[in-house]
Design a protein that fits this description.
Blueprint: H1 2-38, H2 43-65, H3 75-102, H4 105-111, H5 115-125, H6 136-157, E1 162-163, H7 187-214, H8 218-240, H9 254-287, H10 290-304, E2 309-310, H11 311-336, H12 340-343, H13 354-360, H14 363-371
Antiparallel strand pairs: 1-2
Helix pairs in contact: 1-4, 1-9, 1-10, 2-3, 2-8, 2-9, 3-7, 3-8, 4-10, 5-6, 5-7, 5-9, 6-11, 7-9, 8-9, 9-14
């Protein structure tokens, strides 16, 4: 009984542990990418290399581990994969990197906390999220969504004075050139670009959960997203950087480390983990862990990159975190509610149908489903 209880506890904690890994990797991506962007690396090239590395890393796992369970490609699934590649690698990554180059890594990760609120709204509109305004859980999710947008609005319209942290060095440990000096002049436009990326990312989460219903092979789907993302991003880069062919060159430095780290951790590994957790917990649960990334980036960004935190960013981030945890609390009440069986017909992404597991034979997904 002791081992069974331990195994049961581990299975219940597994989605939380996986999301901690995802957010830690995202924090590293923000910091490393911020360095190379400030050093002058093209964001278009960074996106191409990032997704190409992710595809190369995932390819052997997709080919050998899912060769028996991978369903046949259909035209509708192909178009959904194309849409996923456009939403995340092309739109989200390009606009987020553009906004980051005009602001900072910690600011970008804080604004990205609006993703769960946007995801919740989209899921409700598509009838994929349970919402009954007479229940406290639904009220909490709506309240949290409103508060989250309020925090993002505070960060957008109010910058405020710089808050000096005692551990922050006066100068970054990396040479970021002169690009950082102009960030204050483009703070508002940078925020708009980040918010565009935020919306694209939220739409990606919802569409990914829908696509997994028709194509229940997480690694293969992640590989195809990275592959199509690299191809489409390369086409965009060839047009955007047509007069600068030298932007494709990288050396044995941070400009090589950034796409390698982002490709392996935040594209390849993250897409797969998200796919697994999405099938048992849904997109709102997955995106609710974003505040952890914000905290890690804020601390390490102030230490390593000497990033300056403004009062408006701190207040907005706190407000966003409060809103997010209201959403998470509401989701937790949904999971505990005796009416979940009815809600499952409206929220297919929360719990998978048992017949699906019998067909797919995905042992990892079966373990997750058994735990919930």
């Amino acid at each position: 009984m002791g081992m069974e209880n331990l195994q049961s506890g581990y299975n219940k904690a597994k989605p939380y542990l996986l999301m901690v890994v995802v957010q830690s990797g995202a924090a590293g991506m923000y910091l490393i990418s911020s360095v190379v962007l400030k050093q002058g690396m093209s964001r278009y090239v960074l996106v191409v290399y990032r997704n190409a590395v992710g595809a190369l890393v995932l390819a052997p796992f997709a080919i050998f581990l899912e060769r028996k369970i991978r369903p046949k490609m259909t035209l509708s699934v192909f178009f959904q994969i194309m849409a996923l590649a456009i939403l995340e690698p092309v739109l989200d990554q390009n606009f987020s990197y553009l906004g980051m180059s005009l602001t900072s890594a910690s600011y970008t990760s804080a604004i990205m906390n609006a993703v769960p609120a946007v995801t919740f709204i989209v899921a409700v509109l598509l009838r994929l999220e349970r919402l009954k305004m007479r229940e406290m859980a639904s009220q909490a999710k709506v309240f949290g969504t409103i508060v989250t947008f309020g925090g993002a609005l505070i960060m957008t319209v109010f910058k405020g004075p710089i808050v000096n942290l005692i551990w922050s060095p006066k100068q970054s440990l990396f040479d970021t050139g002169t690009a950082a000096a102009s960030s204050d002049q483009h703070w508002l436009s940078g925020t708009v670009f980040i918010l565009i990326g935020c919306i694209a990312w939220a739409l990606f989460f919802v569409l990914q959960s829908i696509t997994l219903k028709k194509y229940p092979a997480e690694i293969s789907l992640a590989f195809l997203i990275c592959l199509m993302g690299a191809v489409l991003s390369a086409a965009v880069t060839l047009v955007a950087e047509a007069h600068h062919p030298d932007v494709w060159a990288v050396g044995w430095n941070s400009k090589l480390l950034a796409p390698a780290f982002a490709g392996v951790v935040t594209s390849g590994l993250t897409y797969y983990i998200q796919g697994v957790v999405l099938q048992t917990r849904g997109p709102v649960f997955v995106t609710a862990f974003n505040p952890l990334c914000m905290i890690i980036v804020a601390v390490l960004g102030s230490i390593v990159l000497a990033e300056k935190l403004h009062l408006g960013a701190i207040i907005g981030a706190i407000v966003i975190a409060v809103g997010l945890y209201a959403v998470v609390w509401g989701k937790g009440k949904d999971k505990a509610s005796p009416s979940d069986e009815i809600a499952n017909h409206q929220l297919p992404m929360t719990k998978m149908d048992t017949a699906h597991f019998n067909v797919s034979g995905d042992t990892n997904t079966q373990k997750y489903a058994a735990a919930y």
